[in-house]
Specification:
Order of helices and strands of chain A: HEHEHEHEHEHHEEHEEHHHEH
Largest sheet of chain A: 5 strands, parallel
Radius of gyration of chain B: 25 Å
Shape of chain A: globular
Structural class of chain A: alpha/beta
Number of strands of chain B: 2
CATH topology of the largest domain in chain B: ABC transporter involved in vitamin B12 uptake, BtuC
Number of helices of chain A: 12
Structural class of chain B: mainly alpha
Helix content of chain A: 25-40%
Low-confidence stretches of chain B: 322-332
CATH topology of the largest domain in chain A: Rossmann fold
Low-confidence stretches of chain A: 1-34
CATH architecture of the largest domain in chain A: 3-Layer(aba) Sandwich
Largest interface: A-B, 85 and 80 residues
Distance between the termini of chain B: 46 Å
Largest sheet of chain B: 2 strands, antiparallel
Oligomer: heterodimer
Order of helices and strands of chain B: HHHHHHHHHHHHHEEHHHHHHHHHHHH
Mean pLDDT of chain A: 83
Distance between the termini of chain A: 52 Å
CATH superfamily of the largest domain in chain B: ABC transporter involved in vitamin B12 uptake, BtuC
Strand content of chain B: under 5%
């Protein structure tokens, strides 16, 4: 999808002198050569995929939140923040002069406007009832192909496979005990990740069983009453991300929570916040964090 | 109580009990002594989960039924309930602010924060009501506007935080899940106090029911009774929502059913409503439990009552009759009147064009501000022009709709937001997002328009009734809006990326507008403006009241239908672009009047120009304030509009 003639930006035009001067003053990377495509990421999963290929985008959305919540992989300060994912700043996007915009079907409604600025590559990661891990892996190759560097895709995929295999070996001892991946909502509810979430499908890749086998709605099910955990007494409970302050006190004095077999037996583990709607780097972070946490506890 | 009624109540009770027992069928009863130590996990699930949940459903339902009954009696309004007074939205805003800015406040639980927020919102609504003698329609509209503002700010803060707040979503959905007996203790205390208060208030309320003048003649302190009654209802409702979250429509449905079952008079109504409320909530929660027990998706009980309440509300609407005392609403009094408005209007138009031109040329870039040169302008024009045109068109359309509504209803608080069209459009958008995994802009637009049109059709169906006074039309609109927001929170309670998309749209954004869409919107505003000019005789006569207008040869029913249809179309089109809330439709007509544009044609034109200007300013502010983060347009317009609204409503009406 290439924007049509009249407004397609040409980097060398004098027209942008005013804006370009300001850009330079702000220390934006204008030195990049035409050989290195300038990527602008609207979608976080696509951004992570690009980073996994070693191609840091020149601009991406909601970096303040990404740096604060997710943090890994690290986004350099030179990357321009394009504003909210739900309302990206199109003028700034144009100023950044991307050569390829990375999007996903979540942002279909913007696509005509994005396509006016630069060609758009939109890859699906999260579709109802489909395992996102395979899509995250396929996206490595698809993006590499679009960047005319298929070798980078192969390398990134090989690195990921090696890391996942290592995690699988370290976690082999845990293979016969299912794992329940949850986020805590409030003192009475949680969010459960099923097979069609990035986390759930990554579990399968590293040889673990997902304790949550019931239906999900689009990647995860929320809100699930806490007592559903009693249906999986054998499972190891893994809490991803922080527990909200209002839930901590409630959980601490909850009769049911303390009586849950996982809690009573001390099979509760905490992981840092990981991007549930990320790409391969998030899958790798989950695998790594699980391997570390579970292996240390064993 | 008739025999049939007793039969029905017992049948309901049996059904609720059967559903609860079905959910509990596999769980063993806890053994004595009733302490968690020494009980099996399943006994704990029963004794500290399911049992308190059943009791909480009864208590909360009764409390909400009581609160709704008190409100409906004192406001003499069959669609009054805790949500219509902005209580729940206030509690929601407080929770959002606390979660985002001061999570430490929540360490003691959500109860104090939610209670404070609900009470603050109610205090604001009561303060406004006090200025207008607690006149029912003014109270309901004030409640609706305060509620809309609070939830707009809450949405915007949630969005700006960029983080999906699961705990808030759960709270919005109203969950009855329990893990110990603290909730039961809180709610039992609340209900006990509420029941005592209601018993004390029953007699003064009965005296009040003969009318404010008559009651005052009998020596009753009307204001004190109204204030105490509303205050009591607010505390009960805020307490329930602080403990469990939003549970929609129980407070509305219980008194309505009580009345339909033949509860005549205030005493029986206050006594029967809590019973019915308890049964309704228990039955709903039983359904949720049974559904979850069959392995279905978990549903939040409050969301379910919202879905059940919708049809009920539609069924109630025809029963909205003149139970509101007439003549309690007054306008703003005489406004200045310009002898020659022509030059003023021309000046406004020129100012608008100049402002639009300026906004095209200047803007922020990383590191500072920039004035575009000619060629950069050529590159940026396709980005800036659509949103400027769309913002101006939306502002003008809303201002025209507001002018027509305010003249039609002779009510200074009539605003396009309370017409229900925006709520319907929001539902249409949400429905499209949920039905299709990745809808394109065109399909989304069509879905949104369909939702708005459906809501407009419902409002029109009631507008067309011969005996429908105009302010009742507003109540119909408010009812439709309340329904929309209940269903919306049920949808958002699912809490995935689709809910995020809906939240983003609710806050309004012109970012994704294309030039053709913007031009269509501007064209529609133009058409509505010309239609308004053609109808200016109606607009001049209608504020004089239906009797005078009819005497002068106007068919009030036809005028009502045509004007509501025009206003609805304009609102719906603007909603597609700005999201459901802006207040521009409320402000612009007032500003035009204050300027002295008194004749309908002048007021229409002036309001349209002012509305367009206000929306341009809001759009500029929304884009520049948090650069490069584009803040929601609807929020920014509300930030301009809300202080104006408060000022307007707290002025004593002459």
């Amino acid at each position: 999808m290439v924007g049509s003639g009249a407004i397609s930006p040409r980097p060398d035009r004098r027209a942008f002198l005013t804006a370009a001067g300001v850009l330079l003053a702000a220390g934006l990377p204008l030195r990049a050569h035409a050989a290195q495509p300038r990527l602008a990421a609207i979608d976080w999963a696509m951004m992570e995929t690009a980073i996994a290929l070693g191609r840091m985008p020149v601009a991406a959305t909601e970096l303040i939140r990404y740096r604060a919540d997710i943090g890994q992989p690290v986004i350099p300060d030179a990357v321009t923040d394009l504003g909210l994912r739900g309302a990206p700043n199109f003028e700034l996007l144009q100023l950044v002069r991307p050569s390829l915009i990375l999007s996903s079907p979540y942002y279909t409604r913007f696509e005509p406007r994005l396509a006016e600025v630069a060609p758009v590559l939109s890859l699906p990661f999260f579709l109802p009832n489909e395992a996102p891990f395979a899509k995250a892996a396929a996206a490595l190759h698809a993006l590499a192909a679009a960047l005319q560097d298929p070798a980078a895709g192969d390398r990134a995929a090989a690195r990921a496979d090696a890391a996942l295999d290592r995690a699988r070996d370290r976690l082999a001892f845990h293979a016969d005990r299912p794992v329940a991946l949850v986020e805590i909502g409030d003192a009475r509810h949680l969010r459960a990740f099923g097979f069609d979430s990035l986390f759930g499908s990554t579990l399968a890749r590293i040889g673990l069983t997902n304790a949550w086998t019931s239906a999900t709605a689009f990647s995860f099910l929320a809100p699930v009453p806490l007592e559903r955990l009693a249906d999986m007494p054998q499972a190891t409970l893994v809490i991803i991300g922080p527990v909200p302050p209002e839930a901590r006190r409630g959980l601490a004095r909850s009769v049911l929570w303390r009586a849950l077999p996982q809690v009573a037996a001390g099979r509760v583990h905490r992981l840092p916040r990981i991007n549930a709607f990320g790409g391969m780097p998030s899958a790798l972070r989950l695998a790594d964090a699980l391997a570390k946490t579970l292996a240390e506890a064993a | 109580m008739t025999l049939g009624l007793r039969m029905m109540l017992s049948l309901w009770g049996l059904a609720a009990a059967a559903l609860w027992l079905w959910a509990a069928r596999d769980l063993p009863w806890p053994t004595w002594p009733f302490v968690p130590q020494g009980q099996s996990l399943d006994q704990i699930r029963m004794g500290w989960g399911l049992m308190p949940r059943g009791v909480v459903a009864l208590l909360a339902g009764a409390a909400l039924g009581l609160s709704g009954a008190i409100l409906q009696v004192v406001l003499r309004n069959p669609v009054a309930d805790p949500t219509t007074l902005g209580i729940s939205a206030g509690a929601q805003l407080a929770l959002v602010l606390a979660t985002v800015f001061a999570p430490g406040l929540l360490v003691k639980g959500q109860w104090p924060v939610a209670m404070a927020g609900g009470l603050a919102a109610a205090a604001l609504v009561l303060g406004i009501g006090a200025r207008r003698g607690f006149a029912p329609v003014a109270m309901v509209i004030a409640g609706m506007l305060v509620g809309l503002t609070a939830s707009a700010i809450a949405t915007a803060v949630t969005l700006a935080q960029g983080q999906y707040l699961l705990s808030l979503v759960i709270w919005n959905g109203g969950a009855l899940v329990q893990q110990d007996w603290t909730g039961v203790r809180h709610l039992a205390l609340l209900l006990g106090l509420g029941a005592m208060g209601a018993a004390l208030l029953a007699r003064p309320l009965r005296v009040l029911s003969i009318g404010a003048d008559g009651a005052a003649g009998l020596g009753l302190n009307v204001t004190l009774v109204r204030l105490t009654a509303v205050g009591l209802a607010v505390v009960i409702a805020a307490g329930v929502s602080a403990e469990l979250g939003l549970i929609a429509f129980v407070g509305l449905a219980a008194p309505a059913l009580a009345r339909a079952m033949g509860a005549r008079g205030i005493g029986p109504l206050l006594a029967l409503s809590p019973v019915l409320g308890a049964l309704i909530l228990s039955l709903s929660d039983g359904l949720v439990l049974a559904w979850a027990g069959t392995g279905g998706q978990t549903f939040l009980t409050g969301a379910l009552t919202g879905l059940v309440g919708g049809p009920l509300l539609i069924w109630l609407l025809p029963r909205l009759r003149g139970s509101t005392p007439p003549g309690t609403e007054a306008g703003d009094g005489p406004a200045p009147r310009l002898a020659r408005p022509g030059p003023w209007l021309a000046g406004l138009a020129v100012a608008l064009v100049v402002a639009a031109g300026l906004l095209l040329w200047i803007g922020r870039v990383p590191g500072g501000w920039a004035i575009l040169d000619r060629e950069s302008l050529a590159a940026f024009l396709p980005l800036r022009l659509p949103r400027l045109v769309a913002a101006a068109g939306a502002g003008a359309a809303l201002a025209l709709a507001g002018t027509m509504l305010q003249r039609l209803t002779a009510n200074p608080l009539a605003s396009p937001e309370v017409l229900g069209v925006s709520g319907g459009a929001a539902l249409g958008y949400a429905g499209t997002v949920f039905a299709l995994a990745a809808p394109g802009a065109l399909i989304l637009g069509a879905g949104t328009a369909a939702g708005g049109a459906l809501a407009l059709a419902v409002v029109m169906a009631f507008t067309a009734r011969r005996d429908m006074p105009p302010e009742r039309v507003l109540l119909v609109g408010i009812a439709v809006s309340a329904l929309a927001s209940a269903v919306l929170s049920a949808m958002i309670a699912v809490g995935d990326a689709r809910a995020w998309a809906i939240l983003a749209w609710l806050s309004g954004s012109t970012g994704a507008v294309t030039l053709p869409v913007a031009l269509i919107l501007a064209g529609l505003a133009l058409v509505v403006w010309m239609a308004g000019l053609a109808l200016s005789r109606w607009l001049a006569l209608l504020p004089l009241g239906p009797a005078i207008a009819g005497g002068l040869g106007l068919d009030p029913r036809r005028a009502r239908v045509v004007l509501i249809l025009l206003a609805g179309l304009a609102t719906g089109a603007a909603t597609l672009v700005t999201g459901p809330l802006s207040f521009v439709g409320l402000m612009a007509p007032h500003l035009a009047r204050r300027m002295g544009l008194a004749r309908p044609a002048d007021q229409l034109t002036g309001a349209a120009l002012i509305g367009a200007g206000l929306m341009l300013a809001a759009d500029f502010g929304a884009r520049m304030a948090g650069f490069p983060y584009e803040l929601p347009l609807g929020l920014f317009a509300s930030l301009i509009g809300a202080p104006w609204l408060i000022w307007l409503m707290t002025r004593r009406s002459p």
